[in-house]
Design goal:
By secondary structure, the protein is of the alpha/beta class. About 45% of the residues lie in helices and about 15% in strands. It has 2 domains: about 1-180, Zn-dependent exopeptidases (Aminopeptidase), CATH 3.40.630; about 195-239, no CATH class. It has a 6-stranded mixed β-sheet. Helix 3 links the parallel strand 4 and strand 5 (about 120-125). Bound molecules: zinc ion.
Length: about 240
C-alpha cells in the first residue's frame, strides 16, 4: 500500500495568497508533512510529490504516482476566491470515479469533523491531477486563504495539526487501519523517547557524558552512529 500525498504548488508558484500574505504553497507543505508523519506512525508507506519549496509540474506529480503504482493520490490545497467572504472546506473527486469519490468522502468527513469549518461538501471536477492519476484520487481544499478569518486559522499550528489529523484519519479509515492516538503520543511526547529509556537517554545526552544529542531516538542505528557513540564513551572513560 503506497499513499501519494501532493502538497499543491511550490517554488515560483505560490498558489493562492491570503490578505496578509500567507502563501498557499507553504500551508499545503506543512499539512502534507504532518499527514505523512501520522500515516507513517501507522506503518503506511507514504510518498510526497515534493518535500520542500520546489516547483513540480502537474504532469511530474501525476507520473510519480502512476510510475510506482501508488494506491491512492491525495492533493492538498487551500482555496482562494475573489470574494473574500467565501469560507469552508470542500473536497474534489473526478466525476464518476466511484473509488475516488469514496476516498474524497472519507477524507472530507474526517477533516470537517476535526477543523469544524463550514461543510461545502464533496464535489467533482476535471482537475488535471484527478483526471490523469490512474489510482483513486482526491483534492482537498482545507479552507479559504482569501478569507481573513480562515487565513488567521491557517497560521495556527494547532489548526494545521487538526487539518492534518482529519485528512490522515480519513485515509486510515478508508484503508481499514484503526487510528491509534497512542502511536502519535509515543512519537511526539518528550521528543519521542519512551518512558523506560528516559533515564538512560538523559544521562547519555547530559553535558558531562555527551555521547549523543538525543536526536532520532526511534531511528535504526547505522554503523557510523554506533561507532561514534562507542568512541565517545571510550573517550569518556579515559578522561
Ligand atoms: Zn491550490
Amino acid at each position: 500500500m503506497i499513499i501519494f500525498i501532493d502538497p499543491g504548488h511550490g517554488g515560483n508558484d505560490p498558489g493562492a495568497i491570503g490578505p496578509s500574505g500567507l502563501k498557499e504553497k507553504d500551508v499545503n507543505l506543512n499539512i502534507a508533512t504532518i499527514v505523512k508523519g501520522i500515516l507513517e506512525n501507522h506503518n503506511v508507506d507514504v510518498r510526497l510529490t515534493r518535500n520542500e519549496d520546489t516547483k513540480a509540474e502537474l504532469a511530474e506529480r501525476v507520473n510519480m504516482a502512476n510510475n510506482i503504482n501508488a494506491d491512492y493520490f491525495i492533493s492538498i490545497h487551500i482555496n482562494g476566491y475573489t470574494n473574500t467572504s467565501a469560507f469552508g472546506t470542500e473536497t474534489y473527486a473526478y466525476p464518476n470515479s466511484v473509488r475516488g469519490i469514496e476516498l474524497s468522502k472519507s477524507i472530507h468527513r474526517n477533516l470537517v469533523a476535526e477543523i469544524k469549518l463550514k461543510n461545502r461538501g464533496v464535489k467533482t471536477s476535471n482537475f488535471y491531477v484527478l483526471r490523469e492519476t490512474v489510482m483513486p484520487a482526491a483534492l482537498v481544499e482545507v479552507a479559504f486563504i482569501s478569507n481573513p478569518v480562515e487565513e488567521e486559522l491557517l497560521k495556527e499550528k494547532a489548526f494545521i495539526n487538526k487539518a492534518a489529523l482529519g485528512i490522515a484519519k480519513g485515509i486510515l479509515e478508508l484503508i481499514d487501519i484503526e487510528y491509534n492516538e497512542e502511536n502519535e503520543n509515543n512519537q511526539h511526547a518528550e521528543g519521542g523517547i519512551s518512558d523506560w529509556a528516559k533515564t538512560a537517554m538523559e544521562w547519555a545526552a547530559s553535558n558531562e557524558v555527551n555521547i549523543t544529542d538525543g536526536s532520532m531516538p526511534k531511528e535504526p542505528i547505522t554503523l557510523e552512529r554506533m561507532i561514534t557513540i562507542l568512541y565517545r564513551y571510550h573517550k569518556l572513560k579515559d578522561s
